[in-house]
Structure formats: C-alpha cells, structure tokens
Amino acid sequence: MSKILYGLYDMMNIAAFRLNQDDQFELITLSPTWLKHFTPVGTNKGSIVHLDGIFPFLDCFVAEAFEVWEAQTETPHRSGPWVDFTPEGEEFPLEATAVCIDGECVLVIQDLGEEYYTEASRLQTFRDQALEKERLEIAITEQTQQIRRREEEIAMTLLAASGHRDHETAEHVRRIGLYAEALAKELGWDLEKAADLRIAAAMHDIGKIGIPDSILLKPGKLTQEEFEIMKGHPAIGADMLNKTRIPLLNMAAQVSLCHHERWDGTGYPKGLKGEEIPIEARITTIVDVYDALVHKRVYKKASSEQAALKLMAQMVGKHFDPALFQLFVKNLPKMQRIRQAYSEPTRRTTISA
Asked: Which CDD domains match (predicted)?
C-alpha cells in the first residue's frame, strides 16, 4: 500500500481490516492514534484484532456485514455513527463500513472526530427549532380557536336578539346553518370556512331586527309599501355586520345583503345576477326556501317535500343557481337527516353536518 494511501488513511482517522480465512480481522492499514486507545500495545498493520471484544456495538453490525460480503456487493454498507469509550473514559465517535473490494471482505472504521459533534450540534439546533415551531403552532391554533369561539358567541348573541322579534324558530335557524355547511363541504370547502358558513347562513335574516313589529309580525299579506320596508332588512343586516374585521361576520354580512338576490337578476337589493351573487348567499337562498316550504308557519301550512322540490325545480335558473340546486338535490338525504334531527318544536337528537 502506497505512502500516499497510508497518509490519507491517517489523515481521515481510518482503520481498515480484512476478513481472513479464519474469519478474523487483520489490520491492513497503520494503526491510527485513536485505535491505539482500544487495542493492546503493539497493534499495527498485519495484527489480528478482536473487534467484537473491543467494540460491543459492532456485534450486530458485523452480522449485517457478513451478508454484504457473502453477496460480494461493492456497495458500501454503513453502520451509522456510534460513540465508544476507552478504558480511561475518553469518548470517540465512530462509524463502520462493510464493503467488498476485489473479492476481499473489508471492514473500515473511522473516527468521525469534531465533525460528528458539529453535525450533532446542528441537528440538535434544528430539532430545538422544530420543537419551538411546533409549540408556537399549537399556541397559535389554541388562540385561533379561542377567537373563533368568541366570534361564534357574538354571532349567536345577535341571533338570539333578533329571534325574539320574528316568527322564525331557533330550530329553523339551526337547520339553515347545517344545510349550508353540508353543501359547502360537498363543494370541497375547508372545514373552517364551511363552519363559518354554518353561522353566517343562520344570520341571513338578522336585519329583520330593524323592521317595525307592525310589519314583521303582521299575520296577513303585506301592502306594497310595507313590502318595500321589509325589503330593507338585507341592507340593515349587512350594515350591522360589516363594520368589523371578523371574517365570520364579514361573510354573514354578504349573506344577509345578498340572500334575496336572484340568479336571473330580478332580486333585491342590488339586482345582482348569476355569479355576481356571492356563493355563500346563493347556497343560503336555496336552503332557506327549502326549509320554509317544508315547515309550518303561523301564516302558512307545510308543503310536502315532493311539492316543495317540484316548486323549487321551477325556480332553477330564475331564483336559484342551477349547479348548486343540482348539488342540493344530490345531497337531499343529508338535508332530510338534518330536518329529522332538528325538527320542531324541539330537537330530538344531534347530528354532524
């Protein structure tokens, strides 16, 4: 072996061993300084070294090494780093590699030196940073959930206030939200946005809080003048809700303002047409009409579901977004389950939309 190779092995802190015919390890390089801490005095090139007695970690790795040697593969198989201690307690980070070279079974052991500790320190820093990032993400998630709970509390308080002045029941409001959330999920919305719509859709008529009782609670048909006043409730609701930076209430403001717009542009208050109408409002419009038709009110009888769907089908392309109505019909079993779970006058069970 050339002096250049010996110099390289020494510089790289490498000790190379050949497996002889007696399955013993023969040192084929000069003994590096680190190895002398583990082996008997005089160990050098050509010495037989009982590695299993010196490096207990190697016992398992040598079993893997024999598989490499038996397969005569030239692809190096590494043990991965480990740390061993000399009888004096000095620490050495080592790594072994098994390989076949020209038919010889070779085991190379290297002292990784300071590079090992540098890399270990880098990985520890990376781990600490990852743990800190995870901790911060958990804290942010918890804070976000707290904010969301407060937003929902605000929304439900507003709903409770408006519910005292109108014929709508708490179950109707709850169903509207659950219908809308179910459709949003079918559209592929993320769970948070779908949950926002559950609350926002339930607030669609919140502007009625600003309509006089003489009109809001009138049991008969409204006069044209009264109807014009009633038509103001979408704008009243939007004005109540859009003065915040809360995304949930901003969505609710859009639903309130636009839930009486029609697909063909004949709705109010702005006469928006087609996709000019926010999709949140288009969804709410469909489920609100459905729920109103199939439930009894003081001013009307409940329609059968068949009759309700027949009437709604006639409104497609005029009142309703055709694609959303198809999606609604496709998911009618989900709507029916929500109706049953939140039937009037009391809720009998619970359901997840």
From this structure: HDc (cd00077)
Phi and psi (nearest 5°) for 110? -125, 135
d(CA 269, CA 289): 18
Q: Look at the domain 3-111 and name its fold.
A: Beta-Lactamase (3.30.450)
Domain boundaries 134-341, corresponding CATH code: 1.10.3210.10
CA angle 338, 274, 319 (to 5 degrees): 55
Q: At what angle do helices 332-341 and 170-186 cross, to 10 degrees?
A: 150
Q: Under a CB-based contact definition with an 8 Å cutoff, are residues 252 and 236 in contact?
A: no
Listed in sequence order, the DSSP H helices in 72-169 are 113-163
Cis peptide before 247 (omega within 30 of 0): no
How do residues 203-252 score in pLDDT, each as one tens digit? 999 998 899 989 888 878 899 999 999 999 999 999 988 877 888 889 99
pTM above 0.70, yes or no: no
DSSP labels for 237-250?
HHHHHTTSS-HHHH
Omega within 30 of 0 (cis) for the link into 93: no
Interatomic CA distance for residues 329 and 304, integer angstroms: 15
Domain boundaries, the chain: 3-111, 134-341
Q: Using alpha carbons, select from 308, 305, 267, 282 the residue that is nearest to residue 184.
A: 282
Q: Which residues pair with 84 in a beta bridge?
A: 92
Which residue shows structure tokens 């977004």? 321
